[in-house]
Design a protein that fits this description.
The complex is a heterodimer of chains A (102) and B (153). Chain A is built from 4 helices and 3 strands. Chain A is α+β, with helices and mostly antiparallel strands and 102 residues long. In chain A, helix 2 crosses helix 3. Classes of the chains: A alpha+beta (102), B mainly alpha (153).
Amino acid sequence: MIVAETKTRQTPQPSAAPATRQQDAWRVVVLNDPVNLMSYVVMVFKKVFSFDEARARRHMLEVHEQGRSVVWTGVREQAEAYVFTLQQWHLTAVLEADEVRS
Amino acid sequence: MKRVEVRLNLEAVAPLLDVIKGAADELKPVLAVRQQVPDAEGDFAEGWNRELLQGQTADVETLLALFGSEFFASGVIALDPMNAETILRACAAVRLRLRERHLQALDDDALESSEVALEDLAEDQRKALAAYVFLATLQELIIQHLDPTVLEG
């Protein structure tokens, strides 16, 4: 996974949080919007997450058809960095607690 | 990506620049998309949004700089590895703003398929739609050079 390379600006530091919260699993979710091009979304997914073409396209279609796609799950700090990067690209990205894993 | 020079139809593009500039001005104090900040508490949320806005402003300035005096003299814009991603993001921001401010009345599906009855639109909406489509075309052109496989799928 890469994220730092794709960012043009520094991500704000995550807020201080209890250690247990930081270590819980968090989901990075991309929500549908009616404006951004499908090709643009695929390219952003490839760039931000190093997805291959098929995986990036699968997530893009999930966003397009189901309104949302979980594109990454993991520790909070990294999840926040991904959300920030996706928001820099003007995708609607949110952070959710992974209820199943946490 | 190599440096790419694109010759545009000055007569067609020049009238759209006012619309694009207008949307760019509107974006100075606000993000193109109202985003959820993971931790909505004061300083963190403020810093998060400030960083996003600074980035957006810099991106949009780069887009506008494409259409400077050189463009009006030659009709040519130059895309290169240094500005391509910045311009891609800026196009997204301006398109989102145009959609929100001028094209709200249009149906998503109609807009996506470009099946819009132009005769039903007011003049400002027509111009906004033309700018919206122009910026999408510019994005596709850049993506084609950055990652051609994306457009082949």
